[in-house]
Amino acid sequence: MRVTRPEGADAHHRALESLYAAAPINQLFASTLEIPEPGVARISFEIVPAHFHAAGAAHGTSYFKMLDDAAFYACNSLITDRFLLTTQFNLLLTRPLSAGPVIAEGRWISGQRRVFVGDARLITRRGEEVARGTGTFMRSRIALASLPGYRFA
After folding, report:
1. 1 within domain boundaries
2. CA-CA distance, 16 to 56, in Å (whole number)?
3. C-alpha angle with apex 98: 96 to 58, nearest 5 degrees?
4. CATH code at 97?
5. What is the pTM of this model?
6. Strand order in the sheet with 100-110
7. pLDDT at position 4, please?
8. How many domains is the chain partitioned into structurally?
9. Residue ranges making up the domain that contains 100
10. Percent of the chain with pLDDT over 90
11. Burial level of 128, CB count in 10 A (0-12/13-18/19+)?
């Protein structure tokens, strides 16, 4: 059986998934990134009681992190040389999140050179949208290849 290595955009997407998994913040938020195609990112995660505020639902940091990450990786999936930075992000929180699995779906909206726009939404296991966000992301001077987590399978 011959094993083939991903090439081109697919290799870049797998390396971004590796970069996401290596980020220290994800020790606090167990989650998995999948980039199925250029301009699209999905993060599967679980809300647990450790993410709750005093009233027993997910704190806004959980919403922001996952929405920002999904939109960011959707945009960075189109850029193979540089790490993008979030320059602005707007949130709309429509329902409280309780414990359970959630999907953050991100997609690239516009931009191809220096500034990119992406959006994302959070979907519960019942298929309900509980939040959405839109962000702008700018090319940084940080080369993706210089980041220890960015590695090809």
Report:
1. no
2. 33
3. 65
4. 3.10.129.10
5. 0.93
6. 31-37, 40-47, 100-110, 115-124, 129-143, 82-93
7. 47
8. 1
9. 8-146
10. 88
11. exposed
